[in-house]
Amino acid sequence: MHIVDRHLMQMAAAEELARLRRYEAAWNAYYGRMPAPLKVRKGQPDDNVIVNYARSVVDKGVSFLFGQDIRFELDETQQTDEEEWLDACWAANGGAVLLQKLALNGGVCGHVFAKLVPRAPYPRIIIIDPANIAVGWEPDDIEEIVWYRIQYAAVDPHTGEPVTIRQLIERQDRHWRITDQIARGAGSWQTTDTTTWPYEWPPIVDCQNLPMPNEFWGLSDLEEDVLQLNKSINFVLSNLARIIRYHAHPKTWGKGFAANQMQIAVDETIVLQSPDAELHNLEMASDLTSSIALYERLREAMHEVTRIPEVATGKLERAGALSGVALQILYQPLIEKTETKRRTYGDLLIKLNRRLLALGGFGEDHHTVIHWPEMLPTDTMQEAQTALLHQQLGVSADTLLQRLGYDPDMERDKRESDSAALGDTLLTAFDRGA
Which of 341, 337, 366 is nearest to 352 (CA)? Predict the structure, then answer.
């Protein structure tokens, strides 16, 4: 092998290892497995405080993105067979829960992958751990993928021995070749199956969590600066806990007498025999204001860097009723962040739906319109009044119902059902009267 080729392979391996280490650090932070800021000697109380802001940041991002149901439409004027099949397919795959798991991978790792597996009656959507997949692309076009490699450790269900599973998905002209392999222990790879994927697109869809130019891998919600901020917060709080443990309680001291000259009566009266004796309490000279202020500044920095305002976590002090504009301003960082995610994840869902419909036998030309829910809490009465004004201006009933969170097709069917039921009731009453 040429020395330049060897060097490039080593660089690629180092980048892959660094990526996996970033994933491990982010997942450890999400699950609260953070390093203890203070050393604890044997027999010493553990004053370490771990506050998991990392999980709060990711969970709030997932909640704003997929916390409410989203709706897919292929034809905005009527409910089609394709739409009914697509809704049933998503329901069979977990629906909103599947999307939340997908976004959780993205929030922690920065990239998401979903794999399609043909199956009756509906294709299976499998979420892939980003740590288990490697990707190859064209040197001059990072968006042009030429191969995927899925690899993970497992246990053979028949023998109980550890094995490594690998699947290679490689582009072959206008199709993709899928090769399944297994390695037992330290043995070599053995091919167990080879199939041809009969479509021009691969059975995997992916997207960045947050856009990252000049890179294939996206930006996560838990980059290194965020994790370091969380560690600094834990360090300050742990120091506060240790200071309070040793110095919060007053320490009594005295002078001008020997220890055996101090008597404590039954009624808790302290008697000092020497007329020159003194007894005092030694208390903290500081109320830790500077340390608490540092913690508050670090916490503010965490909210600013992650674009998760404190009001989004339920903290809102000294505020009365807020208008819609005021809420928009307070939530603006999170709204902007979520809108960006709606574009990246929205493109993934459009591709995914088109491929699902192709696997379902409906062709490859369908484009999904995604109806996202409102992010912020709203005043129902004000919304209804605004909808009436929009209707007077000529906005369609379908659009207004969608903005209010209703499914126009479903509401239309319900109205027809109600009309039919009312007609039957009137006919029955007429027949009785006759």
Answer: 366
**Residue 361: helix, strand or coil by DSSP?**
coil
- pLDDT value at residue 394: 75
pLDDT given at position 128: 97
- Contact assessment for residue 368 and residue 358, using Cβ atoms and an 8 Å cutoff: no
How far is residue 21 from each of residues 15, 106, 342, measured CA to CA in Å?
10, 16, 27
* Residue 220 CA: distances (Å) to CA of 114, 226, 235, 239, 284: 17, 10, 24, 30, 43
CB burial readout 310-347, b (16+ within 10 A) else e: ebbeeeeeeeeeeeeeebeebbebbbebbebbbebbee
Tokens of 230: 């969380």
Closest CA to 212 of 138, 135, 142: 142
Cα–Cα distance for residue pair 45/221, rounded to 1 Å: 34
d(CA 8, CA 29): 32
Type of residue numbered 221: D
CA separation for the pair 303, 312 (Å, rounded): 10
Residue type, 153: A
The Cα 41–Cα 21 span in angstroms is 29
Q: Give the whole-angstrom CA distance, residue 195 versus residue 175.
A: 11
pLDDT mean values, one per 10 residues, the chain (434 residues): 57 86 96 93 90 95 94 86 95 96 97 96 96 94 94 88 94 93 88 94 97 94 96 94 77 70 66 68 69 93 93 67 71 94 97 96 92 76 67 72 66 67 63 58
d(CA 18, CA 283): 50
DSSP conformation letters of 303-353: HHHHT--GGGGT---S-----HHHHHHHTHHHHHHHHHHHHHHHHHHHHHH
Let me know if 367 is exposed, middle or buried by CB neighbors in 10 A (0-12, 13-18, 19+).
exposed
Question: Chain-centre distance of CA 125, in angstroms?
Answer: 18
Q: How far apart are the first and last CA of the chain?
A: 99
pLDDT of residue 273: 66
Cβ burial of 146 (10 Å; 0-12, 13-18, 19+) is: middle
d(CA 324, CA 318): 17
How many whole angstroms separate alpha carbon 95 and alpha carbon 88?
9
Angle at CA 195, nearest 5°, toward 191 and 197? Answer: 140
Q: What is the pLDDT of residue 316?
A: 66
